[in-house]
Write a structure and sequence with these properties.
It contains 15 helices and 2 strands. By secondary structure, it is mainly alpha-helical. Strands 1-2 form a two-stranded antiparallel sheet.
Length: 341
């Protein structure tokens, strides 16, 4: 009897592993009830938790795949950690150079006393060649973040639409299909984030100046807008056949038009971030583990759930009203929308 249970458990485990990597992924128990279909049209808080519970295992898998694609971050973090840096002794006082020059020509009780005061030294960490190499490898994130976000938001969008998803296959198939736009938007996304972060630091350090304070708050406001735009940018990219310029334009318009759900997305994301930080402070190992298996995909899921109804309302539904002949019937393929001008 125990042998039978052991074999049954092994078969089930292998089946789950096959499901994860399979293109077809054994589509059993993937249907939804009529009640869930009605709830999905409203996309309210009640259906969010039901959908979240049903998608929990796939969100965990998605989080792991996303981190796998962004492995250069581990090179970057280890490179800037200082573990591979070299250390040198250096004086703590800027006057030591002058004193050292005097002591080369004359040494007396006065110079000896001064040397005891300003001649103290400390260890200084210097970035080593190995650290620089790891940091340079980490710069690949500029490419990988955009591509992995394309795959992630395709999977999240289908989860929100209550469609069947195969995390591994759908993730990488979408990246392959949108490779060019994914790379370009990923680079633009990274540069914009770096620029906004730099501006916040510079203007924040000079808030005593009125003009700098105005710029500082303007950058803060735009950062919030762009944070919301990112959800729309990648979802629009995997849903519509649009040029990059119009992807950003529509993302900005939806960030403004869908203000209600967008604010909810921001607040929910902040709550998840604060909980993760709090857990990390109390239990660093557990907090770090959450980032690896949970936190990133949950934040993305919240954003996709809050923003996709706005995309459907302002972009998808109007398109099908203008082109009813293109309204798709039951299909395994996602609809590709043409440029609406």
């Amino acid at each position: 009897m125990n042998t039978y249970k052991s074999i049954n458990h092994e078969v089930k485990t292998l089946g789950n592993l096959y499901d994860f990597f399979s293109r077809t992924n054994n589509k059993y128990n993937i249907g939804v009830t009529k009640e869930e279909i009605d709830q999905s049209k409203d996309m309210g808080a009640g259906y969010f938790f039901k959908l979240f519970r049903r998608s929990f295992s796939k969100l965990t898998a998605l989080n792991l795949v996303f981190l796998l694609c962004n492995f250069p971050i581990f090179f970057l973090l280890y490179g800037i950690s200082g573990n591979l840096n070299t250390t040198v002794n250096t004086p703590t006082s800027p006057l030591f150079a002058q004193l050292y020059g005097i002591m080369q020509y004359e040494q007396n009780p006065l110079t000896a006393a001064l040397n005891g005061v300003i001649g103290n030294s400390t260890e200084l960490s210097v970035v080593s060649v190995a650290s620089r190499i790891l940091i340079y490898f980490g710069y690949a994130l500029i490419i990988t973040v955009g591509l992995s976000s394309v795959g992630m938001f395709y999977v999240l969008r289908n989860m929100v639409r209550s469609e069947y998803v195969s995390v591994w296959h759908d993730f990488f198939a979408t990246i392959k299909k949108n490779l060019k736009q994914g790379i370009i938007i990923g680079i633009l996304d990274s540069l914009i984030i770096l620029l906004l972060g730099y501006d916040i630091l510079i203007y924040g350090a000079n808030t005593d100046n009125f003009l700098m304070s105005v710029f500082y708050f303007a950058v803060i406001i735009f950062s919030f807008i762009y944070f919301i735009m990112r959800y729309y940018i990648y979802t629009i990219l995997v849903t519509f056949d649009l040029p990059i310029k119009k992807i950003y334009k529509n993302a900005f318009l939806l960030a403004v038009l869908g203000i209600k759900r967008n604010i909810i997305a921001i607040l929910a994301t902040v709550v998840v971030a604060l909980i993760s930080i709090y857990i990390f402070i109390l239990l660093p190992t557990v907090g770090l583990l959450l980032v690896f298996i949970f936190s990133l995909s949950v934040v993305g899921f919240i954003g996709a759930y809050c923003t996709y109804p706005n995309i459907k309302r302002y972009m998808i539904d109007p398109y099908y009203e203008e082109h009813p002949e293109e309204l798709p019937e039951e299909s395994d393929e996602e609809p590709i929308f043409k440029d609406r001008g």
